[in-house]
Amino acid sequence: MRKAILHLKKSDPVMRGIIERIGPCRMKFGEPVFHSLAEAIIYQQLNGRAAETIFNRFAALAGNPLTPEGILKLTPEQMRSVGLSQQKSSYLRDMGERAHRGELDFSRLGKMSENEVIEHLTQVKGVGVWTAHMFLMFTLRRPNILPVGDFGVRMAMHKHYLEKKALKLRPSKTTKRTDGKTAKKTVKPQIILPKPDEMEKIARGWEPYRSIACWYLWQSLDTKTIG
């Protein structure tokens, strides 16, 4: 990790400032197993506390760690009883069935390329590219992932790399005051989040440690000293 931090600080002055304010990188990793992906599905589109409550209730029924057999033994009514939506229940059941048939094989993921992992995981209903990117970063521990569809990363890039530029270029408009005189009023720039090609350009200097840089971007949105 030390090597990654030194590289990021040396290659990007903006990232260096973020790192110095956040402090040491404390990325938490899971194991690249069935349980981790099932947990990711449960947590999708929920705030942390609600997701944790539903997950704990579900694991109490299905077993902890989660397994294909533990999920497939549950009825739809049991899955709904812990707070899972019908849609998420169907995602978990599809994942369990695919793993049971051998179509979803976690033992092979470590030897796959990034694109192969994404293709393998997204065969499961409810698992999109974003979830696959999170799995690559936080379970397979791939150091150079750039999740271009992540809202937090896009927002942090806008805040730290694009907002100041937009402020310099923002137009002004002439308004008439109550005393009849005119005054210029600065127009607040619209927030336009970067698209994938722009994100790739910003992150070019971070390689091969884009995952670590993205962790710092997420943290920067929660840190009051950055603004």
Q: Which structural class best describes the helix and strand composition?
A: mainly alpha
SSE pattern, N- to C-terminal: HHHHHHHHHHEEHH
The CATH H-level superfamily of the largest domain is Hypothetical protein, domain 2
Strand order of the largest sheet: 1-2
- Tell me the β content: under 5%
Q: Name the average pLDDT.
A: 89
Biggest β-sheet strands, sense, barrel: 2 strands, antiparallel
Helix content: 55-70%
CATH architecture of the largest domain: Orthogonal Bundle
Separation of the first and last Cα atoms: 26 Å
Shape: globular
Total DSSP E strands: 2
Integer-rounded radius of gyration: 22 Å
Total count of domains: 2
At CATH level 3, the topology of the largest domain is Endonuclease III, domain 1
Q: List low-pLDDT spans.
A: none
Total count of helical runs of at least 4 residues = 12
Give the SSE map:
Blueprint: H1 2-11, H2 13-22, H3 34-43, H4 48-62, H5 68-72, H6 76-81, H7 86-101, H8 114-121, H9 129-138, H10 151-169, E1 172-176, E2 182-186, H11 196-202, H12 210-220
Helix pairs in contact: 1-2, 2-12, 3-7, 8-9, 10-12
Structural write-up:
The protein has helices spanning 2-11, 13-22, 34-43, 48-62, 68-72, 76-81, 86-101, 114-121, 129-138, 151-169, 196-202, 210-220; strands at 172-176, 182-186. It is 56% helix and 4% strand. The protein has two domains: 2-23 and 148-220, Orthogonal Bundle (Endonuclease Iii, domain 2), CATH 1.10.1670.40; 34-138, Endonuclease III, domain 1 (Orthogonal Bundle), CATH 1.10.340. A two-stranded antiparallel ribbon has the order 1-2. The chain is mainly alpha-helical and 227 residues long. The longest helix has 19 residues, at 151-169. It is built from twelve helices and two strands, in the order ααααααααααββαα.
